[in-house]
């Protein structure tokens, strides 16, 4: 797997990405190859060939030509083909032809079953030119098919054009296609950048047993540092012999650095205080173009403008008046327009929507509660979305787009199962690619309410109530009510599970919901402070049991979200220290895994196995490590997160950055029906900041492209940047939310300098509380050696509290943020001295937990 040459064209590779295909000619194996095509050179006119209705063909200069009318919608609106071609299972075929057409028009060549369901053995797209050009594809038949069909789909162009075809050949006995990824230089780095004071590691793929010298060169080629690699032996996740390389001693900033070792020079990278600033926004801007039910403005998202999808306009059949699936009918319809499309499909799933919107709201919460957080970074007008400049942080505006969809999925009052949430809404049948959301003609249905979906709604609506309280009291109240209703409904129906199987959408099946109960209870408790939810938290087995798995959490396993939230969002739960300790203990496990892994990967299962969406799991594991850093300030956790970014951005076996637009070799063909540039050059690639699901070594879940190309792969090699490889290369709202959370964290680390010691302590004491208010006294103590002369103390009230009458300090509030300034007469605080001010606060009706993070003149008090 370490010799990076592309030996043969991919079986299902679009010619657009592979260039004109340069497959080895079909070779004779044991038996002489037999030509399956009749009259492939058209010496006998059009004998043996058919054309779809309305297509006139004629043989011109020995080639078959067709006038193709413009203005049709789909590739299959015009077809030329031949039937009755026998295919043998496991036999490899070379399929070749010469074709010409209008410049840039794409022909889709298929070898497939001639009738529904059109089981496909080859599906290749090639861009044509005015001059005849040869194309060749190799594929291995997956089953016997006595009467396969070759079809050239030529519809879908805007203008009339002429298609000409010659020398069509389908020969058995070809060498089976072998996919060899181009893995570039054997020195693997974070292709984006390293922080000046942060860890700096690379991995070298080499057979050498002994340490190797390395050199770090700046952009001019001047060697600025050198050292020796550390042999690490055989890495099971890549099946490679590797060395690790630590150049952390070099702390100067610059661009275009390279590392050289064992005769190979890495891709270039930066050392900068802010290599992730753009990523932190791009990863969030991703959500706007995933929106359903709203026109995407090309001004806001240049290159991505498109009509609103599923907004009740033909040919769409959703989502404004959707009823239940015919197998599980109901007598009502719901308007479930809006929300985000889950991934590359047009489905919208409450379970996965839940964790995604939660992580976005957590980006906001962390900015307020973490010592390195920065509310300004997630403020209003920080993203490219239509709601900029409306006085609400943009990340919350984006979250609200999904939240309102989740709320709309709740079964209305008076119906059976009222208060539960429908599991999902999606097409009756799977659609093909590409397909713009507004062109999807399938009927769409609500799928039965599930306990997991209901608890996802309860958890996220509770969080919504909390984070929106300072900005929109009415919306916060709507969320609060929906959350409590959902919780009660889940208690009443604790075992309604979505199953696997079904057509037209993903399953998101989940029959273990103790974890969702725990997470929802935690969010409800944090928002309301109510005894009922506190008991649900402390009474849950998962509260003290094993919550963190080897790979943290995902849409199916959400118990860790409860722990992380209880650890970080202000609250007064008994046993809070144990909760925090459990997060740190989990982080210790991940830290040990990362330290042991020669690529710094935070997941380190025994056999190196990786599953569907492994990059999402890698990033969620980093969320736990990052939270441990937020809780303890211990730089080892922060450094493991920074090192985790290296893996995602190129320091891996494939030398692959899994984020579009970031790094020299970035993923650009994620499975998507509308970012489908690989299939249709007039469509865009996914926007910058889109994460690919990444390596998936679970062969049982592979799609046909992964099956055809990845057989026998070592885990890290089980990935292909191909649009049809959905089990290794899709994009999703839940993987990007992990990327967004972690990108915000690493951006907050600045240069990754050692944390400075705190020089203050704050005592925040509530002296009296009543139904609607409370009085508080705040004491600031100078614990440093320097006198303070003039002070400003800041905190966030994220529970919706607001400050009123105050004394001995000048208090101001903007949204959740409170700033108190001295009154001149109390501006000085000498070392060891303190000053006190006070105020009367108003409560919003929810939890009244005191703020836990205070900044004196910008520096965090401890
Ligand atoms: O496009 C679908 C993708 O979003 C899903 O993750 C995947 C697995 O459920 O399925 C994809 O759809 C394929 C379907 O499962 C089988 N027919 C081909 C579809 C891709 O066009
Ligand atoms: O991310 C999901 C993964 O954990 C599952 O193993 C897989 C098969 O059920 O489905 C993934 O989710 C897909 C969903 O079903 C449909 N939309 C695209 C999602 C990502 O591929």
Automatic annotation (TrEMBL):
Matches recorded under CDD domains: E_set_Cellulase_N
Keywords: Carbohydrate metabolism, Cellulose degradation, Glycosidase, Hydrolase, Polysaccharide degradation, Signal
GO biological process, one term: cellulose catabolic process
Keyword set includes Protein transport: no
Superkingdom of source: Bacteria
Leader sequence residues: 1-28
Any one Pfam family match given in the protein's UniProt record, by short name: CBM_4_9
UniProt GO MF annotations: cellulase activity; polysaccharide binding
Ranges where the CBM2 domain occurs: 753-862
Residue ranges, compositional bias (Polar residues): 693-704
Reactions that this protein is recorded to catalyse: Endohydrolysis of (1->4)-beta-D-glucosidic linkages in cellulose, lichenin and cereal beta-D-glucans
InterPro entries: 6-hairpin_glycosidase_sf, 6hp_glycosidase-like_sf, CBD2, CBM2/CBM3_carb-bd_dom_sf, CBM2_carb-bd_dom_sf, Cellulase_Ig-like, CenC_carb-bd, Galactose-bd-like_sf
EC class of the enzyme, as a word: hydrolase
Entry keyword Signal: yes
Active-site feature positions: 721, 730
UniProt-listed Enzyme Commission number(s): 3.2.1.4
Record-stated family: Belongs to the glycosyl hydrolase 9 (cellulase E) family.
Name of the featured protein: Endoglucanase
Natural source organism: Nocardiopsis aegyptia
């Amino acid at each position: 797997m370490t010799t990076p040459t592309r030996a043969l064209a991919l079986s299902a590779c679009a010619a657009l990405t592979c260039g004109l295909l340069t497959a080895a000619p079909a070779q004779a194996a044991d038996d002489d190859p037999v030509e399956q095509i009749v009259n492939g050179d058209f010496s006998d006119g059009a004998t043996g060939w058919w054309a779809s209705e309305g297509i006139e063909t004629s043989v011109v200069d020995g080639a078959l030509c067709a006038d193709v009318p413009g203005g049709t919608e789909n590739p299959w609106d015009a077809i030329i083909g031949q039937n009755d071609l026998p295919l043998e299972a496991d036999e490899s075929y070379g399929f070749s032809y010469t074709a010409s057409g209008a410049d840039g028009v794409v022909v889709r060549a298929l070898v497939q079953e001639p009738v529904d369901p059109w089981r496909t053995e080859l599906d290749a797209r090639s861009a044509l030119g005015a001059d005849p050009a040869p194309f060749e594809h190799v594929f291995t038949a997956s089953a016997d098919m006595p009467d396969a069909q070759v079809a050239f789909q030529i519809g879908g162009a805007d203008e009339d054009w002429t298609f000409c075809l010659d020398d069509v050949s389908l020969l058995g006995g070809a060498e089976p296609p072998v996919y060899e990824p181009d893995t570039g230089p054997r020195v693997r780095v974070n292709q984006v950048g390293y922080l000046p004071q942060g860890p700096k590691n690379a991995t070298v793929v080499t057979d050498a047993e002994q340490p190797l010298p390395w050199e770090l060169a700046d952009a001019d080629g001047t060697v600025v540092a050198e050292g020796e690699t550390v042999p690490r032996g055989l890495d099971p996740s890549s099946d490679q012999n590797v060395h690790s390389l630590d150049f952390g001693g070099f702390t100067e900033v610059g661009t275009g650095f390279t590392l050289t070792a064992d005769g190979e020079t890495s891709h270039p990278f930066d050392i900068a205080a802010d290599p992730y600033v753009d990523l932190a926004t791009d990863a969030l801007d991703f959500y706007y173009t995933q929106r359903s039910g709203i026109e995407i403005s090309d001004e806001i998202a240049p290159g991505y403008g498109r009509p609103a999808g599923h907004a009740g306009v033909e040919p769409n059949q959703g989502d404004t008046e959707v009823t239940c699936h015919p197998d599980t009918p109901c007598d009502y319809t719901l308007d479930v327009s809006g929300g985000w499309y889950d991934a590359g499909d047009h489905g919208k799933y409450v379970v996965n929507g839940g964790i995604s919107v939660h992580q976005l709201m957590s980006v906001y919460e962390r900015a307020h509660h973490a010592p390195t957080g920065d509310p300004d970074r997630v403020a209003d007008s920080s993203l490219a979305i239509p709601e900029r400049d409306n006085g609400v942080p943009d990340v919350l505006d984006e979250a609200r787009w999904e939240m309102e969809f989740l709320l709309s999925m709740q079964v209305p009052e008076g119906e059976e199962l009222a208060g539960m949430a429908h599991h999902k809404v999606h097409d009756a049948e799977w659609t093909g690619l590409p397909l713009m959301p507004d062109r999807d003609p399938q009927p769409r249905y609500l799928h039965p309410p599930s306990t997991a979906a209901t608890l996802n709604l309860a958890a996220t609506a509770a969080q919504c109530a909390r984070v929106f309280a300072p900005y929109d009291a009415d919306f916060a109240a709507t969320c609060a009510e929906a959350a409590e209703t959902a919780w009660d409904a889940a208690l009443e129906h604790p075992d309604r599970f979505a199953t696997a199987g079904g057509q037209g959408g993903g399953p998101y099946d989940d029959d273990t919901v103790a974890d969702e109960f725990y997470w929802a209870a935690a969010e409800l408790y944090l928002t309301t402070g109510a005894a009922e939810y506190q008991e649900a938290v402390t009474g849950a087995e998962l509260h003290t049991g094993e919550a963190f798995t080897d790979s943290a959490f995902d849409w199916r396993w959400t118990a860790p979200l409860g722990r992380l939230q209880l650890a970080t969002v202000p609250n007064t739960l008994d046993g809070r220290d144990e909760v925090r300790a459990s997060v740190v203990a989990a982080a210790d496990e991940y830290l040990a895994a990362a330290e042991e892994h020669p690529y710094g990967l935070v997941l380190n299962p025994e056999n190196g196995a990786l599953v569907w969406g492994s990059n999402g799991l890698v990033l969620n594991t980093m969320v736990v490590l990052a939270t441990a850093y937020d809780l303890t300030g211990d730089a080892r956790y922060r450094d493991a997160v920074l090192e985790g970014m290296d893996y995602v951005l190129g320091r891996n076996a494939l030398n692959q950055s899994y984020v579009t637009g970031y790094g020299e070799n970035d993923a650009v063909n994620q499975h998507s029906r509308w970012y489908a540039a690989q299939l249709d050059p007039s469509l865009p690639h996914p926007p910058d900041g889109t994460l690919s699901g990444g390596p998936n070594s679970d062969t049982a879940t592979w799609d046909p492209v992964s099956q055809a190309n990845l057989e026998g792969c070592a885990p890290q090699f089980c990935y292909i940047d191909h649009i049809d490889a959905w089990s290794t290369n899709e994009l999703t709202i839940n993987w990007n939310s992990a990327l967004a959370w972690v990108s915000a964290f690493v951006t907050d680390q600045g240069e990754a300098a050692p944390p400075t010691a705190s020089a203050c302590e704050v005592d925040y004491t509530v002296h009296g509380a009543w139904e609607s208010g409370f009085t508080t006294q705040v004491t600031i103590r100078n614990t440093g050696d320097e006198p303070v002369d003039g002070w400003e103390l800041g905190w966030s009230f994220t529970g919706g509290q607001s400050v009123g009458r105050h004394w001995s300090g000048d208090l101001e509030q903007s949204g959740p943020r409170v700033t108190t300034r001295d009154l001149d007469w109390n501006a000085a605080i000498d070392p060891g001295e303190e000053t006190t001010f006070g105020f009367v606060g108003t409560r919003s009706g929810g939890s009244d937990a005191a703020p836990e993070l205070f900044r004196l003149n910008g520096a965090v008090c401890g």
